[in-house]
Amino acid sequence: MTMVREDNLAAPKVVLPPPFTLHRTEGRDVLAETVALAPSEGAGTLVLHQSPGLLAFAVVLEPEQELVEAQLAFLLGMTAVGDALAAHCPPDRSVRLNWPDEVLFDGARIGGGRFAIAPGTADDAVPDWMVFAAELIADRDHIAEPGAYPDSTSLLEEGFDPAEDIVSTFASYMMLYFDRWAHEGFAAVSNRFLMRVDPPLLRGVRRIEGDRMLEITPSGGGRRMAPLREALAVQAWRDETGPRL
């Protein structure tokens, strides 16, 4: 693992609210890198990787709730990613989410989210730590014919603001949404997630019920999505190197 603290670098600064502490890494798998740091570095550790083709970042969380509820922090992380991207993309473009972990930009895959929980944590136990990670396609310059991959796009191609701005805004949204969860309840922030779920639900309602998303139609029918941890195990949006092109 090659890890350097932000204050030791001349790279463009990432402005983070307290209590975040930034570490840059050359390792592409920021989830694994952050999991290794989580027991010693603790909450607020934010690990950032930037390389050709990939922008990835992860943050250590130390919840106070039992795992059955604490795992919903993943949805807050996805909401923060979606809102950060929406704040730094060209106007009138759509940032959407596929339940529960894929990020789409104007209908094309641009990345997704990952999650790790301290091993051995029972549903009725408070995790020692959890890690939320996001992986985004920074560019596709290494592809001879990007048009051959119409299902994906990149931050560079779509004219996003600098990566440092995206990461800073993500951290600010994470702080905001955890504060709302603590003071107003989970529904106050889960609605932000549900607003971004694709495709838009033109009639009926969506809600988070336990660890699932539930869709209810006007006729009284409905659909229950796979449980969160079961759905996260699929990771259809990525392969062993990162987001699929």
From TrEMBL:
It holds the Pfam family BPL_LplA_LipB_2. It comes from the Bacteria. Residues 16-194 form the BPL/LPL catalytic domain. This is BPL/LPL catalytic domain-containing protein. It comes from Roseicyclus marinus. The lineage of its organism: Bacteria, Pseudomonadati, Pseudomonadota, Alphaproteobacteria, Rhodobacterales.
